[in-house]
Amino acid sequence: MDGVHDLGGMHGFGPVPVDDDGPGFHEPWEARVWALSGPVMQRTTIDRFRYSIERMAPAAYLTSSYFGRWLQAIETLATDPELLARSPVTRPAPNLPPRSCRFATGERVRVRNAVTPEHTRVPRYLRRQTGTVRRVACIWPDPTRSAATGVYGEPVVHYTVAFAAADLFGPDTDHVVTADLTETDLEAV
């Protein structure tokens, strides 16, 4: 995530508003955008959808609402000739078989500096940081590859890694940040 959309840990944007009791959609057009996403998503991956949002021009991204970004992604993907010619994407089974893991629960790991012009799910504030593996989260296709191709590839191991917020954001923070990262995003300490 190398772009304006990678706002995690950045200052100056104010608090994130949370509306737990509010409606799912604030305007009628948002529900229509959500409905439009279904036919597009049948022919691609969620990672390709996110990558389409991440390629928005910075000014457009920062001035668009959540569903405005979705609409942009739908427009981008719905005009992709390769996607339009594709049969529906086969989704991986939610219970992919376990495989050997490089890292164990409790092991210290460092996040690689995954600077790439392509999609990556590694936020910049975690790059080069050291954390502790909390658990093997799942076996699932590599999001970087499925963002690039729009199809799900070979499954990889994903870990939940815990980081001390003080290491990430300074000594005035006292919580723990967890992130699900692929095995290829991590290296031994």
Automatic annotation (TrEMBL):
<dbReference type="InterPro" id="IPR049054">
    <property type="entry name" value="CN_hydtase_beta-like_N"/>
</dbReference>
<keyword id="KW-0456">Lyase</keyword>
<dbReference type="InterPro" id="IPR008990">
    <property type="entry name" value="Elect_transpt_acc-like_dom_sf"/>
</dbReference>
<protein>
    <recommendedName>
        <fullName>nitrile hydratase</fullName>
        <ecNumber>4.2.1.84</ecNumber>
    </recommendedName>
</protein>
<dbReference type="InterPro" id="IPR024690">
    <property type="entry name" value="CN_hydtase_beta_dom_C"/>
</dbReference>
<dbReference type="Pfam" id="PF21006">
    <property type="entry name" value="NHase_beta_N"/>
</dbReference>
<feature type="domain" description="Nitrile hydratase beta subunit">
    <location>
        <begin position="100"/>
        <end position="186"/>
    </location>
</feature>
<dbReference type="InterPro" id="IPR042262">
    <property type="entry name" value="CN_hydtase_beta_C"/>
</dbReference>
<dbReference type="Pfam" id="PF02211">
    <property type="entry name" value="NHase_beta_C"/>
</dbReference>
<feature type="domain" description="Nitrile hydratase beta subunit-like N-terminal">
    <location>
        <begin position="1"/>
        <end position="87"/>
    </location>
</feature>
